[in-house]
């Protein structure tokens, strides 16, 4: 799924901030050695200035900001993840700063064009969107009758369960989706394990449980436990949840 413009622009602005600050620091400290001396092109040395000293100290903070941004935008199983492994340990040489600025420029381009996403997740998101459209169509075009909303409830509930499993899998480290006996977690336990891991709050969990109840009632023939209007709200709610949590 594509990021909302406001979120995309927030991260693009952060890229620009770090690139500009990194380039400014690099210009100041590029000739400063690790032991605190300025070394010119003729290998002559002098004590560093106050500005050079301050910017040398700012390098560590910049590096932490760099790692934080990469950790947020790079999917757990992306090939770009090795950048994090390569830069976990801060090393002083200004050349390393220049390399990381180059990383940011390349990653910004990939991020802006949508190439940092997990292709598997993008394909799954497209399939999920198709199934949710089918659920909406089932609800809208169902033959008039007391239980015409049941198929839509079953399909929407199945999509929700599959999406919660994917949400578990995409975490780093991934959240187990089987119980102690090796059996797959059903919808209700998936909700609880995700809430326990702070993927959403209790208010969201409460709404998810309500949709899980509708799905279970539909699957077990308890058709009088829910109505057409509730299924309509369920489909809308699941679509909103997926747009928020499955980006």
| Order of helix and strand elements from N to C terminus | HEEHHHHHHHH
| N/C terminus separation | 5 Å
What count of structural domains?
2
Mean pLDDT: 82
The order of strands across the largest sheet is 1-2
Structural class: mainly alpha
Radius of gyration of CA atoms, rounded to a whole number: 25 Å
Shape descriptor: elongated
Number of strands: 2
Helix content range of the residues, please? 55-70%
Unreliable spans are none
Tally of individual helices: 9
- Estimate what percentage of residues fall within beta strands: under 5%
Please identify the top-level CATH class of the largest domain: Mainly Alpha
Instruction: Characterize the largest beta sheet: strand count, sense, and whether it forms a barrel.
Output: 2 strands, antiparallel
Structural key phrases:
Four Helix Bundle (Hemerythrin (Met), subunit A); 247 residues; mainly alpha; elongated
Description:
By secondary structure, the protein is mainly α. Helix content is 66%, strand content 2%. The protein has a two-stranded antiparallel ribbon with strand order 1-2. Helix 6 (150-169) runs parallel beside helix 7, helix 6 (150-169) packs across helix 8 (202-219) and helix 6 (150-169) runs parallel beside helix 9 (228-245). The N and C termini lie close together (5 Å). The model has no long low-confidence stretch (mean pLDDT 82).
């Amino acid at each position: 799924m594509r990021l909302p413009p406001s979120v995309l622009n927030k991260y693009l602005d952060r890229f620009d901030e770090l690139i500009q600050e990194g380039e400014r620091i690099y210009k100041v400290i590029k000739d400063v050695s690790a032991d605190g001396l300025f070394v010119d092109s003729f290998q002559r040395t002098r004590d560093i200035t106050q500005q050079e000293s301050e910017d040398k100290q700012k390098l560590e903070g910049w590096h932490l900001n760099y790692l934080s941004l990469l950790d947020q935008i790079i999917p757990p199983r992306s090939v770009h993840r090795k950048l994090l492994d390569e830069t976990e340990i801060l090393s002083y040489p200004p050349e390393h700063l220049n390399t990381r600025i180059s990383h940011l420029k390349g990653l910004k381009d990939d991020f802006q064009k949508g190439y940092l996403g997990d292709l598997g997740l993008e394909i799954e998101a497209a399939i999920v969107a198709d199934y949710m459209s089918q659920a909406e169509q089932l609800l809208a075009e169902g033959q008039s009758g007391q239980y015409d909303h049941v198929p839509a409830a079953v399909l929407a509930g199945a999509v929700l369960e599959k999406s919660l499993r994917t949400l578990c899998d995409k975490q780093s480290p991934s959240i187990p989706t089987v119980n102690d006996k090796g059996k797959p977690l059903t919808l209700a336990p998936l909700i609880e394990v995700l809430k326990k891991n702070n993927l959403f709050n209790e208010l969201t969990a409460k709404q998810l449980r309500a949709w899980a109840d509708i799905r279970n009632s539909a699957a077990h023939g308890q058709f009088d436990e829910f109505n057409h209007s509730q299924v309509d709200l369920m489909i809308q709610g699941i679509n909103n949840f997926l747009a928020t949590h499955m980006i």
